Amino acid sequence: MFALLGREANRRLREAHIAHGLTPQQFHILGLLHDHGPLGQTDLAARTQTAASMLVTQLNPLEADGLVSRQRDAADRRRHVVLLTEAGRERLREAGDAQRAVEDELFGVLTAGDRAELTRLLALLRDDMTGGNAHCATPSSLGRPEG
To answer: What is the reported pTM?
Structure first.
């Protein structure tokens, strides 16, 4: 049952992200930059559990579209820092709105209390699987930019 629900949820969320010109991984990257501010590429790779060489393939189109910028770290010129641009904030907001609409469709049968309990239980399972050391954004913050 969980596999079927997960597959359908992933399909719908992927479609919502792609409709806004993002892969799910790119959406995650923008969400991390929104939530944590500028991050070094190495830190961003660790937080997304992505090899540095693969992260570059996600960052290149984001940078080409003006959604992120990469700059040399003033403190360590060998290090690159990734920053979310204003255009990136706007794209994240739009894609986040689309993601929330998908979530509302998926969980429309649940009351607000049911949804809160489901979120709590899923976070408990995630934390148990990762030893409480998950590098992903929380369900409440991912793609939910403020303002």
So the answer is: 0.80
